[in-house]
Amino acid sequence: MRDRGKGAGRELTKGIVRTNPLLVLMVGLCSALAISTRVESCIFMGAAVIFVTVCSNVIISLIRGFIPDQIRIPIFIVVIASFVTIVDLTLKTQPAIYERLGVWIPLIVVNCLILARAEGFASGSGVYRSFMDGLGIGLGYTVVILIMSVFRELFGTGKIVLFNTTLIDLKVDAMPKILIMFPGAFITFALLLACLQWYQDRRKPKGKGAAGNE
Amino acid sequence: MLRTIINLGLRLTLVCLVAAVALGFTYSLVEKRIDEQERKQREEAGQEVLSSIGAAPEEDPELLDSLQEEFPDLTGVFDGLDGTGNTVGYAFVVRSKGYNFITMAVGVDSGGAVTGIEVVTNEETPGLGSVVAEDPAFLEQFNGEGPEPVMLGVDVDAVSGATFTSKGIADGVNAALEIWEHIGKRRQVRDEG
Questions:
Q1: Of the candidates A75, A103, A181, which has its C-beta nearest B12's C-beta?
Q2: DSSP of A17-38, one letter per residue?
Q3: How far is the alpha carbon of A4 from chain B, nearest alpha carbon, in Å?
Q4: B interface mutation test: which of A71, A84, A105 has the most B CBs within 10 A?
Q5: Is the distance from CB of B19 to CB of A78 less than 8 angstroms?
Q6: What is the number of domains present in chain B?
Q7: Which chain B residues are within 8 Å of A95, Cβ to Cβ?
Q8: SS3 (DSSP) at B116
Q9: What residue numbers bound the domain in which B117 lies?
Q10: CB B22: neighbour CB atoms within 10 A?
Q11: How far apart are the CA of A19 and the nearest CA of chain B, in angstroms?
């Protein structure tokens, strides 16, 4: 780790901006593309992912001295899977939500974004910094799926419905339904990446390449 | 070498034990609420499939018990009662195998005709089988079929691209029809004897 722990706040913000899991690291895309059809689902999915990243990061950081190198991956998976199962069981008491998130909750286990943080960060960092890192990465994931879902739900269905209340209604019938289907996920994600790239290019001083080491 | 293996094994076992205890504890906390939710869903489904003949569902645990040995995939039975309390049909909650498991309620009237199908839960592929399993246009084809087993491709059209799910639903309906027939036969034997 290059940054030497001064200000754990940086661990938090880096997950949202500089090493955003979806836009920069490009991990955990599978669930993000699939789930971002409705804002409401994204709120719950985001909360679930934040819970799992934070808890698994903290636990793995706590027991990092106890984990032998050879079997670290199985132990990470056991820890992550346990927290995911806890989320899964808890959400099962709310069938309306559970039905919509369906298979994606159990699949958080194999979401490489969480394993990547366990392996790449929590297993070598202190508890507090791991907590912040988990929170930041989870938030980074959530923010991006929220942006995608707002775009997709609004322009794919013409309105945004949150907890049975219609927040925005464009009152247009013929919306491009493709946006809430699978191709729409890729289109939306690509647009988002393009916007980000355009913004970064603009910020860079002219003439200089990508040598900047933020 | 041996010591390393034992050391690794013990550590992994310990982690798994702690995880298992934590999960067992969580499960004991939510178990009741999950059961209750599932029961509620079943009840609503029973209501739904019997509504076309105007019957009210009433859970019949005794009948369920007597049938379950022969039909292990049956998870719930509702008597469909008309206004005067006569049984005019049944709703069966059955588990069927599509691509994965589908739990569905099937309403059958006194003549053995399907009165409605409602999928309670399905684990089909999201966006593919799961859509078919909830598609009213597909499910409504079954209404009025029976008591002879439904033949996919003859009586109802399967949905292309989701053959397993279509077949799973048809199998579920046929299971319900078979149970209905079984109840009828049993009653006949009882009446004669």
A1: A75
A2: TTT-TTTTS--SHHHHHHHTT-
A3: 30
A4: A71
A5: yes
A6: 1
A7: 37-38, 41
A8: strand
A9: 45-192
A10: 14
A11: 30
Place of tokens 């009741």: B32
Domain borders along chain A are: 9-203
Instruction: Indicate whether B1 belongs to any domain.
Output: no
Distance to chain B for A87, nearest Cα, Å: 10
Q: How many CB atoms lie within 10 A of CB A86?
A: 22
Bridge partners of B74, per DSSP, are B94
Contact of B96 with B123, CB cutoff 8 Å: no
The verdict on residue B39 lying in a domain is no
Cβ distance of B126 and A34 shorter than 8 Å: yes
Please state the pTM of the whole predicted model: 0.72
Does B125 map to a domain?
A: yes
Complex ipTM, two decimals? 0.72
Q: pLDDT (tens digit, 9 = 90+) per residue, B45-87?
A: 888 888 888 888 888 888 888 898 889 999 889 998 888 888 8
Instruction: Report the b/e string of B96-117 with b at 16+ CB within 10 A.
Output: bebbeebbbbbbbbbeebbbbb
- Chain-chain contact of A71 with B23 (C-beta, under 8 angstroms): no
Q: Return the H-helix or E-strand segment holding A127.
A: helix A127-157
CB contact under 8 A, A90 and B30: yes
Tell whether B9 is covered by a domain: no
- Alpha-carbon gap, residue B181 to B26, rounded angstroms: 42
DSSP state of B78: E
The one-letter code for the residue type at A119 is: E
Taking residues A189-207, report their average pLDDT.
84
- Statement: residue B114 has pLDDT above 90: yes
